[in-house]
Amino acid sequence: VLMDVPTASHGTLRTAPAVKPTPKQAAQFSGSKRTATVFVRVRPALEFLGEAGDEILPGLRTSSAGQGCVREQQLRQQSEQPRRDAPDATAGVAAMLNSGNMREIGGFTGVCGMGEGNEIVFERTFRQCVPTVLRGGTAALFCYGYTGAGKTHTVFGVESDRGMYHRAATELLRLIAAQNAAAGDAGRPGGPLRLHASVVEVYNDGVFDLL
């Protein structure tokens, strides 16, 4: 589940308290009708399941295209181009089509296919939310699913395929550095932009600071 919630009071990443939205930006945030964007990510079948004869459910959509979808061959060409500052506008994608006894399950922003790594998933789903944080808003990202669905791989990833948190932090730091370089320390009231981060665990109605 990928969320871009400008009016939320919390977020996984946020700028220093000195960075506040202008009155105009605050009005835009408070009056925003943008809701959460929800993507389904289809995990590849595990090898031992294939050996056992298990197959993908008939009617399961294993990928979807749409506005904001960036394919692998486009990544290198578009890596230096400006990003859209808005969530993927596609809506109403069905992850499960009517098939046999399975009813249609739809209403999703999109479906990330089995062949799409974390880089492509980040480009499709969350990169366009990061500038909201730089403007003083918040953007929250979380994954929901059963044990073994691939949540940890999506948010943390591995060294060769970094997850959403690493990519979001890298993109935010890149934007901060670019803005600081453009404005210059001397020309910005209060000095350069800085990043403050916190890592907490919510478990059994308790909040634990992991730093």
UniProtKB/TrEMBL annotation:
InterPro entries: Kinesin-like_fam, Kinesin_motor_dom, Kinesin_motor_dom_sf, P-loop_NTPase
Ranges for domain Kinesin motor: 35-211
Binding-site residues for ATP, renumbered to this chain: 145-152
Any Gene Ontology biological process: microtubule-based movement
GO MF: ATP binding; ATP hydrolysis activity; microtubule binding; microtubule motor activity
Keyword terms: ATP-binding, Motor protein, Nucleotide-binding
GO (cellular component) term, any one: microtubule
UniProt superkingdom: Eukaryota
Family: Belongs to the TRAFAC class myosin-kinesin ATPase superfamily. Kinesin family.
Protein name: Kinesin motor domain-containing protein
